[in-house]
Please model this.
Amino acid sequence: MVSLEGFEPAATRSWDFPRQVAGTALLVEAGVDAGLDVDVLLQGSDLGPRDLADHQREVTAAQELRVLRNLRNRAPSVTGGSVGARYHASTFGPLGFALLSSPTLGHAANLALRFIDLSFTFTIPSATVDSEQVVITVDDRGVPVDVRDFLVQRDLTAIGRVLQEIAGGGLAAEHRASTSESPGALRFDSSWLEHPLPQANPHAFALAEAMCRDLVSPRRSRHGIVEHVRIHVAQRLESGSPMPDVAAALGLSERSLRRRLSDAGTSYRTVVDEVRHDVAEDLLAAGTLRVEDVAHRLGYAESTSFGAAYRRWTGHAPSQR
Model:
């Protein structure tokens, strides 16, 4: 529970973390509602409509920023607040379910800060208690200037929207507008911190929190170039994840990419192999695809090649999983 002395700090102060595609999909949704074509909104992002429909797809922060800039350039009337209002707890996947099932709003607030890198934020939030008011502010340092105001308003509006949703209504959050000296803030009565949430469920909360830990742990164990390469490889698996394509998406030459991966203690082939293994396990666990279809999804021309790789990874055939 949150004490009156304050909240946990956010798990990271950097916004350059991988994120699920749902936040990007909401930007595209807002653009389509404003009359833009999906292809226009995705231009230069290396994403396609299939990526938006894949709820497990991860994107880089740079890809989301590319889509946001397309939206801002083509539909300047779309505001950050209007996009933030499209967010729901369910948008955040396991984190959203953990928020909904938390015992109190205070527990939920600390949970969100603890797993902030499972969100879509670019402006890192922090919270304090001041004169019986909870004050939520966001840190916009390092956020690109051309989209900073938009993202401050989007992120604060999304926070307020989700807080109201998980509280079951009734929470009145005052939204202080941004100024040249402050990026804005949300305020609400601190008595809400101990407010029991209507969907609180200790068993569901424990399960959702464990899922959050499982999702975030491998992300936090990888850093920088390796994580970015993994995301771009995963987006191109069916085509074999050609190294020139991934290097170009990252703005690097193949030689530079090889060197940077070597400096990180790995290689391009190793990263592709690891991504294929992880995706194979997810697809086989779902049980909805034939082994041949899984092989195709992973970029193998023949299922026998996938079978050989899977035996190398696990010691048994994919059909024996």
